[in-house]
């Protein structure tokens, strides 16, 4: 995620909320890419989680992301097994996978995440049932890595940052807040 991408997403989301005549509160983690100067939105109020609390307060970190990864990697493993059963090597399996294929795998994995899982994770993060209003959910390269069980496979990317690195000035600014 980058600041410019975040701005674009927020402007589109704000426009959509305006078309629906809705005002919404969006609670986001305090990643630097989310703190964009001059972001002018009328229908979306953005509130940041306190620093160093994302893993405790963000509903997606309470199990939704983990559940999605389990389903995604399950899809990948099943496809790999099918490829091997058809006599393909891992490289032959991976090579023809397009971005569209990957997006379809992502879509399928997300559809497997149950609305109960999402509801439970929001409750675990401190949201009360009456506060939650959402519709139910509807429907690799050949690199050696040491993974000894499926849980390790699911969590193999848990330490990878998913947003840009803070500059020294941004770190100082965050500490002064």
UniProtKB/TrEMBL annotation:
It comes from Bactrocera dorsalis. The lineage of its organism: Eukaryota, Metazoa, Ecdysozoa, Arthropoda, Hexapoda. PANTHER family: PROTEIN PDC2 (PTHR19303:SF73), TRANSPOSON (PTHR19303). Residues 5-122 form the DDE-1 domain. This is Tigger transposable element-derived protein 6-like.
